[in-house]
Design brief:
With 477 residues, the chain is α/β, with parallel strands linked by helices. A hairpin with a 2-residue loop joins strand 1 and strand 2. It is globular and about 75 Å long. Bound molecules: zinc ion (ZN).
């Protein structure tokens, strides 16, 4: 009895010692700061803002080809040095620029997209969405954050570097797709195919996706710069239930609508398993040193606390999406009249695939969960497996992190899993160092502006974006 008690006490002490040892071992990671470049020919901030405002007036929507043509003319006029020094190749409305450095080190590829999502209710906007209104603090308009702000800042950076007579250390490529919001099959996908044919291999690819957010997002005091090192996959399926059509006065035991409802309920009650994927694990480890002691102990001992953390993350929709493949029923179709039983009922379900999931494993799960009477058909638009995870630490990631740390917010840099999709996934065949980050600081309240109302970009932050992208292009000087 006494021995058993002693054994328990000793085990607990050993456990405590291990937990403490791991916690105290946690040190602030590499915090190298790479200063943002300074320009001799000082950036003219009001002219830059005016150009961004004009860029937002082109309603570059999928069904507006003339808006893309106008936008291209505008870019040529606005950035004469860049259009002189860089070669330009077009793929439909997509633009691919090449800045030849004369060296043969691994080139850098910067991505942004020209297209924007439609505006559902313009009246809900404080300023008209395609007017490019500039007030004392912001430039307002559809595309300001997603993604013309980045596109314009990248070209401002090339123009400013050229005006200063500076050249990048390695070749720089700029790929501006025109159909990111509808899957990128005509733009990014074709540009990436062409690059692969040319044998191009990039040391770094940078796209939108991450940003700076308040530290409270990850439970710390300092702001965090989240750099995406992977993104989730995307698959949409339709579920179809069939039954005998007939009069609603004598319904059979099984109806198409009832069957379909049961199928959706079964999927919601049996979600895909949750777990910490590599990017999320790395994110937690990276912010561990900045956590208060108790949390640091938890993050430093994932071997023990992983189930606890996963459970906590799975408890909220925003973090649940980080730990598992999610499903969203989005469309329903059935019936024509209130007293007629429909022969078919159909639901559209959108899945976002977590790393480790594949289209095959998801279809196998659907087969297992659903009865034979439900037909599952994957839609072939926008299909993608989760992206591979870019290996870090790496020189490319450290460069981005170093530049991010020199932004005025002095953020803690952390890798993360992007739960949305970007054009970056199309470039996997030409690089394994793909990152998703836009150098702007936003608040949680700003996030609904993406694809929502009142999209805007801070005037104060815009010149910093330009300097950040210039720093990425210059590489090691
Ligand atoms: Zn975007």
């Amino acid at each position: 009895m006494k021995r058993a008690f002693l054994l328990i006490v000793v085990s607990l002490l050993v456990l405590l010692a291990v937990l403490l040892f791991n916690t105290l071992k946690v040190k602030a990671p590499n915090e190298t700061v790479i200063p943002l470049p300074v320009f001799e020919s000082a950036l003219n901030e009001s002219e830059m803002t005016a150009r961004l405002s004009r860029a937002l007036r082109f309603a570059t929507l999928p069904d507006q080809p003339q808006a893309f043509d106008g936008f291209h003319d505008f870019l040529r006029q606005s950035f004469p040095l860049s259009h002189d020094a860089l070669s330009l190749k077009t793929f439909g409305h997509s633009l691919l620029y090449h800045w030849d450095s004369g060296t043969d080190c691994a080139p850098v590829l910067l991505l942004a997209h020209q297209d924007v999502v439609p505006v559902s209710s313009p009246d809900a906007w404080e300023h008209p969405p395609f007017a490019g209104v500039v007030d004392s603090q912001f430039v307002w308009g559809r595309g300001a954050m997603d993604d013309k702000g980045s596109l314009m800042a990248i070209l401002e950076a090339t123009e400013a570097l050229l005006a200063d007579g500076r050249a990048p250390a390695c070749d720089v490529w700029l790929a501006f797709g025109h159909d990111e919001e509808t899957g990128g099959s005509e733009g990014a996908s074709r540009m990436a195919d062409w690059m692969a044919e040319q044998g191009l291999r990039f040391g770094m690819v940078l796209d939108e996706g991450g940003m700076m957010l308040p530290g409270s997002t990850l439970g710390i005091e300092q702001p965090v710069a989240l750099i995406g090192i992977a993104e989730k996959g995307y698959m949409t399926v339709t579920l179809e239930a069939r039954a005998e059509p007939g009069h609603s006065s004598r319904p059979p035991a099984k109806t198409a609508v009832g069957d379909l409802a049961n199928a959706i309920a079964a999927l919601q009650e049996n979600p895909r398993p949750a777990g910490l994927s590599e990017p999320t694990r790395k994110m937690l480890q990276q912010v561990a040193p900045y956590q208060p002691f108790a949390k640091r102990m938890v993050f430093a001992n994932l071997w023990l606390f992983e189930p606890l953390i996963v459970k906590q993350l799975a408890g909220k929709p925003e973090t649940n999406a980080l730990v598992r493949t999610t499903m969203s029923p989005t469309l329903l179709r059935a019936g024509v009249k209130d007293n007629v039983l429909p022969a078919t009922a159909e639901a559209t379900i959108n899945f976002r695939l977590a790393p480790g999931e594949s289209r095959e494993s998801l279809l196998a799960y659907l087969e297992e969960q659903l009865p034979d009477s439900i037909t599952v058909t994957p839609l072939d638009t926008f299909l993608s497996d989760p992206s591979p995870t870019s290996e870090i630490p790496s020189p490319a990631f450290e460069r981005l992190a170093g530049l991010a740390r020199s932004l005025p917010e002095q953020p803690v840099v952390a890798p993360f899993l992007l739960i949305a999709g970007t054009d970056a996934r199309h470039y996997q065949p030409v690089s394994d160092q793909i990152f998703r980050f836009m150098p702007v600081a936003l608040s949680q309240d700003d996030l609904p502006r993406f694809h929502g109302h009142n999209e805007r970009l801070s005037r104060k932050q815009y010149p910093r974006m330009v300097r950040f992208y210039a720093g990425v292009m210059l590489g090691e000087e």
